[in-house]
Fold:
Amino acid sequence: MNSIADALVYAVAYIDCQEMEVEESLEDSDDASEAAMSHIMAYLSHATPEEEDALAAAAKRALEEEQSLHYPQQEMIDFFNKWMEYVLGGDWDGNERVWDDA
Structure:
C-alpha cells in the first residue's frame, strides 16, 4: 500500500500548501496543480495489483456516494465513473480492469 500512501501524503501536502499560498496568480496555481497531478500519477503508477483493486473500489464508492447526494454534480459523477482509466490508463475501462486474454 506504499504507492497509495505516498500519493495521498503528497496530495494532502499539496492541498495544504496551496491554501497557504492564496496570493499566487491563477496561472501559477494551474502550473502547480499540473505538477502535483504528475507527481501523484507517478506514485500511483507503481501501485501493486492489490493497491489498484483498492483504488478501484474507492472510486466506485465515491461514485455511489456522489450519485446518492440530493444534488449530485454530473462532472464528479463522470470523473468518478472513469477514475481508474484516467489515472492508470489502458489496463482499465472505467473502473473495471481489462484482462488481456492473450
In short: Helices lie at 2-20, 26-44, 49-68, 74-81, 83-88. The CA atoms of residues 67 and 74 lie 9 Å apart.
